[in-house]
Structures are given as structure tokens and as C-alpha cells.
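testing teh design pipeline on a random one, pls ignore if ur not involved
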């Protein structure tokens, strides 16, 4: 069928020429405008608005109670109290209560603010034309002039006493937050400098848990020791053994090069800290022929026949030596504590 045979009313009509065409239909980006505002129940019913107000106040009140609970938890629960809470298991009572109460306090403030905004604050949408962000030269000049006038009227340049004391107050206020750092934990004081070793403390074999005797240590052997009285089930065992662990080695006295090492030994039996002076790894690899010990973490190597000096690796100083002797029972004992801190260097090291 040709176009001449199609009825005129069925032929396509060009846009803009059809009878009754919608004005502006040719603009695909026409501004549709804002939808009609629909009032909320709180906008038309004062009782509903009052209920929302009470709900917001209730959330804020619960937040205040949670904050009080946070402070109370800090006072009530000791640091070392452990409790079982399903499904978390055994947790610190203090940490759990602090986290729970602080989380609730912050959540309830946010929930109250959101409920306030959604039900009581105005929800009428407002559209405004965009404008240039940069101020005009006239506005900039006026702002600078107003600032100069304000500074002049405040007499901050002339009243030096007020200005200086104000700056001092503003500088000191942030320092109040430093006080909070006190609660990060107790100060180390001299805890890093001292261990459980003391004069008369017997050396206990960490494998047999029996006191060490000179005849138990043969030339070329490596034995690990700890102070008597330290129990593996003690709550601070890991803390104490990390400072007090010893390596016991027997070297022929003629092969000991360092004079102090020879004097602090007993018949060639020397006791050195087992803790590497790089980052505190336990040393356990011993070469019998060279008397070298190797740290497995970063390969720091120490010569135990020459004051445990560093001969390779990143360690910064020799392993501390413990002066030892024999008591009346024939057991090896310490003659004091280490003369210097064990382990890696730290900020308080002398």
C-alpha cells in the first residue's frame, strides 16, 4: 500500500505541527519543579508533636544515663576483672562496660537528633539558584575593613596585657588533655631496668624445673634458666620471663676473651640474657665451635666468648651478662641483677 492510499489521519505528524501539541515538549531538560509539600502528622496535630518531643527527650535522657554508667563503670570495675558474657566469651568487665555505655550514649544522641529532625524540624524543601563562591572585590574590601575596625575597637593591639594573657590561656587549655594520657597505663618507672634476679636467687632449669648445678652444664651445651620462685601459672609469668630468661653456656676459661665475662662466670659457666637487643626476640640458636648465638628473627649474631658483643646484624649492643656463683648447696645462683636493662634499647635507657 502506498502512502497515497493511507488515510490522512493515520499518517505521522511532525513534532510541533500536530494539532494540540504540548508547549515545551521539545525541551527534555525542563525543570519539573518541586513536588507538592505533604504535611506530617506532627505539623497538623499538636498532640503528635508533643509525643515526638517526649520521645526525643527520652532518648537524650537515656544518653545521659549511659554516660553516668560509663563514669560509674570506670570507678566500679577493676582493671583485671574478667567475666563471661555470651556470646563474647571471657572478656574484661571494665572494657566491655565502658564500650557498651559509651556506644549507647553516642547512639542515643544520634537517634534523638535524627528523630527530632524527621518529626519536628521543618521539612519544606527550598530551592535556590547557585551563585559564584568567590566574593566580589567590594565584599572582600568590606570584610577586611570590618575586621580592621573590630580589631581596633577591641584594643587588642593596645591592651597588651589582655592580649598576652588571652594567648596564654588559649595555649594552656589544650594541655588539660594531656592529663588524660595518665590513664593510658602506669608509668614504666624502673620496671624495664629491673628483673626478678637478685643476690641469692638460684638458677632453675626451664626444662626440668630443678636448680642447676655446675656439673649439669657441660662444655658446648646450651641451657635455658629462669629465677627460682617464678611459676609458669603466675599471672605475670610472661612479663617476668621476658626480662629474666637466661642462656647458660659453658666455655673453656682459656677461650673467654673478655676479662669481665671471665670474672662474672663460674668455672667457665656464663649466663647471658636470652632476649635479643634488637627487638626482643628470644635467642635459641647456638654454634658450639664459634660460641656464637644467632637470633632467628633478624639474624643478629653475638659472640658469647667475647662479652656477647654484636658481630653481625641490626642489634645495637651486646647481650647483658648476669654475674653468677655457687651457693652452699652447690647450686648455681645469681650474685645480683643485670647491670643494664635487658632487651632492645628503649626511650628511658641510660
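output:
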Amino acid at each position: 500500500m502506498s502512502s497515497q492510499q493511507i488515510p490522512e489521519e493515520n499518517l505521522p505528524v511532525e513534532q510541533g505541527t500536530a494539532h494540540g501539541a504540548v508547549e515545551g515538549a521539545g525541551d527534555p531538560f525542563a525543570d519539573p519543579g518541586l513536588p507538592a509539600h505533604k504535611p506530617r502528622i506532627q505539623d497538623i496535630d499538636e498532640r503528635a508533636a508533643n509525643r515526638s518531643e517526649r520521645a526525643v527527650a527520652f532518648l537524650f535522657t537515656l544518653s545521659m544515663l549511659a554516660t553516668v554508667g560509663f563514669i560509674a563503670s570506670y570507678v566500679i570495675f577493676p582493671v583485671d576483672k574478667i567475666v563471661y558474657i555470651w556470646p563474647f566469651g571471657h572478656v574484661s568487665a571494665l572494657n566491655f562496660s565502658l564500650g557498651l555505655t559509651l556506644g549507647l550514649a553516642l547512639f542515643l544522641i544520634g537517634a534523638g537528633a535524627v528523630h527530632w529532625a524527621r518529626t519536628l524540624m521543618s521539612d519544606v524543601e527550598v530551592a535556590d539558584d547557585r551563585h559564584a563562591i568567590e566574593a566580589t572585590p567590594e565584599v572582600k574590601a568590606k570584610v577586611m575593613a570590618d575586621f580592621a575596625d573590630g580589631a581596633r575597637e577591641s584594643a587588642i593591639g593596645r591592651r597588651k596585657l589582655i592580649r598576652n594573657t588571652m594567648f596564654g590561656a588559649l595555649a594552656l587549655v589544650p594541655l588539660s588533655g594531656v592529663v588524660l594520657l595518665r590513664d593510658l597505663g602506669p608509668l614504666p618507672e624502673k620496671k624495664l631496668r629491673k628483673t626478678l634476679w637478685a643476690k641469692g636467687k638460684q638458677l632453675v632449669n626451664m626444662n626440668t624445673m630443678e636448680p642447676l648445678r655446675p656439673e649439669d652444664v657441660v662444655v658446648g651445651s646450651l641451657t635455658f634458666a629462669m629465677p627460682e620462685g617464678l611459676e609458669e601459672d603466675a599471672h605475670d609469668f610472661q612479663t617476668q620471663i621476658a626480662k629474666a630468661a637466661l642462656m647458660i653456656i659453658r666455655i673453656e676459661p682459656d677461650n673467654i676473651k673478655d676479662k669481665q665475662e671471665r670474672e662474672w662466670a663460674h668455672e667457665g659457666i656464663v649466663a647471658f640474657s636470652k632476649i635479643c637487643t634488637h627487638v626482643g626476640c628470644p635467642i635459641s640458636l647456638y654454634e658450639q665451635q664459634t660460641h656464637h648465638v644467632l637470633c632467628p628473627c633478624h639474624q643478629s649474631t653475638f659472640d658469647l666468648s667475647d662479652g656477647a658483643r654484636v658481630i653481625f646484624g641490626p642489634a645495637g649492643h651486646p647481650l647483658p651478662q648476669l654475674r653468677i656463683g655457687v651457693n652452699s648447696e652447690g647450686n648455681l645462683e645469681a650474685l645480683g641483677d643485670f647491670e643494664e636493662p635487658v632487651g632492645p634499647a628503649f626511650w628511658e635507657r641510660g
